[in-house]
Write a structure and sequence with these properties.
Elements: E1 10-11, E2 46-47, E3 91-92, E4 98-99, E5 116-117, E6 127-128, H1 169-177, H2 189-223, H3 227-247, H4 272-276, H5 284-293, H6 295-299, H7 310-319, H8 332-340, H9 342-371, H10 376-381, H11 390-399, H12 405-417, H13 436-451, H14 463-469, H15 473-491, H16 501-522
Parallel strand pairs: 1-2
Antiparallel strand pairs: 3-4, 5-6
């Protein structure tokens, strides 16, 4: 289907008409209105509200910065003229295999001051690696990446081994994972589960490739802790983080938690996600515990709490100076921290970073092993295993879409925008690398890949096809159109950390237009697909 993305015009309503939204009170607050259910002619009706603050000062969670905002040089990806007709977008090489697209590809060995990492063909922004004057790390200067990757590959037939040795990241991704899986079969519920499974494994595979490169860069930094090796490690982290931000939208099966309140897979979830990336459950103090005790070295990573491991631990070590302890002043860790001295702390931090990077690889390989060699894909497609029936299997896949409602809208944007006062967030996402707006952009691309289809412009089977088959094509179009406005809006925000109140408000309202359609129409009592909301958000009326 052809969808033209057009800017929605803001509309105000009086406070007496406000019926939804949980913005924290302050004097002279403008009322909120519910986004229109009908988004005809591409016009998204979004409320304009004056900027307000939460009852909890958002600056405590999302600290302000004097760093000048930078515009992301990108344009929203337009949708293809025929979603189902495009098929695989990759070229075909003479040997019959798909050929990866030719792109301007930077490598880990290039000058990080000028490298241009290509954007995802799912639409991630193209940004230059840059320095961050507010961050520093042991043994190196204060600079960090603004990097992302390009997705154009398919699912592996078995768990990948070490990625191919090549400086070209795109070539390595394509060789290891293949082209993006685009299902052009007619819609059936089983085919939808298969398409979601293939798209998930494709994203897991790509993360495995960039995680291997991250491990290599971190090991090089430990061996030679100079400015260049630190820059390369940070660059590799940025690429891995943005790849992972797409993976976040595929939390079903072994990756997901089993907790229903988390809106994940209550039947087959194994919680692997939190071992790789546990935000918002993160703590710098738990990292310090490991640097002081070094228990991870003697007992293994299995004994390390999730809040002190994974991508957050790597970010903290690579970007934060960690000069003063973040633990309680009289705690054993804080007292030992001061006694270690800066040099010893930095050396231990680099050692721990290598162990963390290796554990991320181990968890990712375990995830891929479960999906491929142990064939969880078959379990999901046939609704076997612990799934009671195919509807429940489809429901837990659909629950992965709720990430856009809670983690993205309410926590990542709602807190600094002043809408969310009750939350579990103690630190914003990527507080030291400051990739906040880039991760949201990647989250939106993951959402599109699952809801519409895994292809570059949403080609392939997705939940929109199920809606169309059920006679609700209008709702599918409304969600796609609202997603387009949100995707455009996020590109207009240069930095989440330094965004103005009006920018934050516009982004929140654009996301809210998508999630309101999800909660009110796609899920719930009126769902045409009989999909219930997860317990953690079913009472949320904003």
């Amino acid at each position: 289907m052809t969808v033209e993305l057009r800017e929605g015009q803001a509309m105000k309503r009086s406070a007496t008409d406000a019926t939804i939204g949980k913005r924290a009170p302050r004097p002279s607050t403008a009322g909120l209105c519910r986004p229109s259910r009908s988004l005809a002619l591409g016009v998204l009706l979004v409320c304009c509200a004056t900027s307000v603050a939460c009852t909890e000062d958002p600056k405590e969670v999302f600290p302000a910065s004097d760093e000048p905002r930078r515009k992301v040089s990108t344009k929203p990806t337009s949708r293809g003229d025929a979603k189902r007709a495009t098929g695989n977008v990759a070229d075909v090489a003479p040997n019959g295999q798909s050929r990866p697209p030719t792109v301007n590809q930077g490598t880990v060995g290039d000058d990080p001051a000028s490298i241009d990492i290509p954007s995802s063909d799912a639409g991630l922004p193209r940004t230059n690696v840059r320095s961050d004057p507010d961050a520093s790390a042991p043994g190196g200067p204060s600079s960090g990446p603004r990097a992302d990757n390009r997705a154009d590959a398919g699912r592996p037939t078995s768990a990948p081994t070490t990625p191919p040795a090549t400086d070209n990241l795109e070539e390595a991704l394509f060789t290891a994972c293949g082209p993006a899986p685009v299902s052009n079969t007619s819609f059936t519920r089983s085919a939808l589960r298969g398409a979601a499974a293939d798209c998930a494994v494709h994203h897991y595979c790509r993360f495995h490739v960039v995680a291997e490169r991250l491990r290599t860069a971190v090991a090089a930094y430990r061996q030679s802790p100079d400015e260049q090796s630190l820059e390369r490690a940070r660059e590799a982290f940025g690429i891995a983080m943005l790849n992972w931000s797409q993976v976040e939208l595929f939390q079903f099966g072994p990756l997901a938690s089993r907790a229903e309140s988390a809106g994940k897979d209550v039947y087959e979830g194994q919680g692997i996600r939190d071992l790789i990336y546990s935000w918002p459950s993160v703590s710098r103090c738990r990292i310090e515990d490991q640097l002081v005790s070094q228990d991870y070295a003697s007992r293994g990573m299995d004994g390390v709490l999730i809040s002190g491991r994974g991508l957050f631990a790597l970010e903290t070590i690579l970007y934060s100076p960690m000069a003063d302890s973040d633990c309680a002043p009289q705690s054993a860790t804080a007292l030992a921290w001061d006694e270690l001295g800066a040099g010893e702390r930095q050396g231990r931090a680099r050692d721990y970073a290598v162990a963390v990077a290796q554990d991320i690889i181990a968890q990712t390989e375990r995830l891929l092993e479960l999906w491929t060699s142990e064939d969880f894909r078959s379990t999901l497609v046939t609704a076997g295993g612990n799934y009671p029936d195919e509807q429940e299997a489809l429901k837990v896949i659909a629950w992965a879409l709720v990430y856009l409602e809670r983690e993205v809208k309410d926590w990542k944007v709602g807190i600094p925008a002043g809408y969310t006062s009750t939350h579990p967030v103690t630190l914003p996402e990527t507080p030291f690398a400051r990739l906040g707006i880039e991760t949201i952009r990647a989250n939106l691309q993951g959402f599109r890949a699952l809801f519409e289809g895994c292809g570059v412009n949403g080609e392939g089977l997705g939940f929109d096809d199920w809606l169309t088959q059920a006679g609700h094509a209008e709702l599918a179009e409304d969600i796609v159109r609202a997603w387009g406005v949100a995707d455009r809006t996020v590109t207009e925000v240069s930095s989440l950390e330094t965004a103005s109140p009006s920018e934050l408000d516009a982004l929140y309202q654009a996301l809210r237009a998508v999630t309101s359609l999800l909660k009110a129409d796609f899920f719930g009592d009126g769902s045409p697909l009989s999909l219930d909301l997860p317990g953690g958000v079913e009472g949320d009326t904003d």
